[in-house]
Design brief:
152 residues, alpha+beta, 6 helices, 6 strands, 18% strand
Length: 152
């Protein structure tokens, strides 16, 4: 009886944690080895810290592109997105849980092309420090050696 129940559960995608197997994907997997991510978690889209980050992004958009860096904005009271991609509320919740960011918190997380977090901040980052950290990464060093900086 137990084996039959287990077989049915596996067929339906139900695990011991009551999470369907198909839902256990990494929402950032498609960016791995393609992009670095600067994820900004905000309690609400009207947060002035987000406005500050977005203004900085607009001023240095070429430098973001040169570093294959995408800006992600994750919030509950508006559509979350990474670059031009929409992020579901489920994936947003999954990312909050993964990085330990509560819904009432502001956080900025730099994710490397390897998919690993490189820095987590609780305030608006100084973009030159973020760029400096990226520029010391081995993969970025190779990129800088192999392609000219289009922003200069």
């Amino acid at each position: 009886m137990y084996q039959k129940l287990l077989s049915i559960m596996l067929f339906l995608g139900i695990t011991g944690t009551h999470t369907p197997v198909f839902a256990q994907t990494n929402p950032l997997a498609s960016y791995r080895w393609q992009n670095r991510l600067l994820l900004v978690f905000v309690p609400e889209v009207e947060d002035e810290r987000l406005t500050s980050v977005q203004q900085t992004f607009n001023q240095v958009e070429c430098e973001f592109q040169d570093r294959d860096l995408l800006l992600g904005v994750l919030t509950r009271n508006a559509t979350s997105r990474i670059g031009d991609d929409l992020i579901s509320s489920y994936d947003e919740a999954q990312l909050r849980a993964k990085y330990g960011v509560k819904y009432n918190q502001f956080a900025v997380i730099l994710i490397g092309k390897d998919g690993q977090p490189k820095r987590q901040l609780s305030d608006v980052p100084e973009i030159e420090k973020i760029f400096g950290q990226i520029d010391t990464m081995p993969m970025r060093q190779q990129e800088m050696a192999n392609r000219p900086n289009a922003c200069r």
